[in-house]
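Mods, move this if it's the wrong board.
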Amino acid sequence: MIEAILWDNDGVLVDTEHVYFQATQRVMATAGVHLTEQQYVDHFLVEGRGAWHLLEERGVGPEEIQRLRDARNELYGRLLRGEPRAIPGVVETLEALRGRYVMDVVTSSRKDHFDLIHEHTGLLPYFDFVLTAGDYPRTKPHPDPYLAAVERSGVAADACVAIEDSERGLEAATLAGVRCIVVPTALTRGGRFERALGVLGSVRDIPPFVRGR
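Not the wrong board. Structure tokens:
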């Protein structure tokens, strides 16, 4: 029986993944590297290692890469300031699940970016706690985020389910012993999700899917 639902953020609760891609692509272009959408999917959403190695291969040194990384983070923050980005159906879904399960956010986002994203979404009151990058040693696809979430929730791993949109998220949850439901986005629709508990077409499908499991 499911007692806790552990939610990814970007691509699951909020539509921000394309913004991160845009910011990364624009900054890397200033160093002569055109990051394609497929490269972004492969290196960020499948492997979870980023794409800075593409600059290393062109001889760009670590100090310049750090400068570019900082520039990307600053640009991403600027792009996030604007309208709420909650994915359609998320509010109704969270409302349907409220009070029935422990619910937490488990994200690889930096806390400053996470806070910017949720300035106006109104989603955070639905969750018991939030874990962002820095709250655990290694980010997804390592299991650390979900191991930390399971411990914090007080619920056994086999009574938790993760909601993810990417292969790296599925990998992280699976390695932590947490079953995972995948709701793919336009960027991740071509992924391999054979190990998922289920692959759903919309967040609206989550409440009927988890009931009774």
